[in-house]
Amino acid sequence: MGDIMNKNVLIKVKGIQGSLVEDDAIEMITTGQYFEKNGKTYIKYEDTALDEDVVTSTTIKIDAAQVSVLRFGATNTQLIFEKNQEHFTPYETPFGVFEIFLRTTDIQFHREIDKVTLNVAYNIEVNHTGAIASNFQVEVTNQM
């Protein structure tokens, strides 16, 4: 399979597409880019799960202490996951803006020659309705 640095890759995403306020673990498989720059790892892909007519560009940035998820399109937001830290984010959706509080409990990032996996566990609270334990996984492999 070879090294996946700076490649067009296959990306399997579970639990982050669509709206984070829904508790359905949808799995999406798409293609995108994987690269490393200035000591950070980037995973980029386009997502139509929120609105089939509008492409949402998603960038996941991973560095030593935190994971950022930036989304532009049907939704515009930046989510920051940092272990044992709480972050507030206004989360813009086609249904309105939600107040999101994220408290990250664990981040696992593994890079192998032909596969990269990211697992983030967090508690999410939407519009002060009580925290819900949640997580998302991203798996990056070479396209066949």
Short overview:
The chain is an all-beta fold and 144 residues long. The protein is built from no helices and ten strands. Strands 6-5-4-3-2-1-10-9-8-7 form a ten-stranded antiparallel sheet, with no helix packed on it.
Label the CATH architecture: Beta Barrel
Number of beta-strand segments: 10
Helical/strand content category:
mainly beta
User: What do we call the CATH topology?
Assistant: Lipocalin
Shape: globular
Report the biggest beta sheet as strand number plus sense, adding barrel if it closes: 10 strands, antiparallel
What would you give as the CATH superfamily?
Calycin beta-barrel core domain
Intertermini distance = 8 Å
Question: How many whole angstroms does the radius of gyration measure?
Answer: 15 Å
H-E order:
EEEEEEEEEE
Identify low-pLDDT runs.
none
How much of the polypeptide forms β-strand, as a percent range? over 45%
Helix content: under 10%
Quote the average pLDDT: 83
Strand line-up across the major sheet: 6-5-4-3-2-1-10-9-8-7
Number of domains: 1
Count of helical stretches: 0
CATH class: Mainly Beta
Comma- or semicolon-separated keywords:
mainly beta; about 140 residues; ten-stranded antiparallel beta sheet; about 65% strand; globular; Lipocalin
Provide structural commentary:
The chain is mainly β. The chain has one domain: Calycin beta-barrel core domain (Lipocalin, Beta Barrel). Helix content is 0%, strand content 65%. Strands 6-5-4-3-2-1-10-9-8-7 form a ten-stranded antiparallel sheet, with no helix packed on it. A hairpin with a 2-residue loop joins strand 2 (27-37) and strand 3. The model has no long low-confidence stretch (mean pLDDT 83). This is DUF1934 domain-containing protein. Pfam families: DUF1934. It comes from Petrocella atlantisensis.
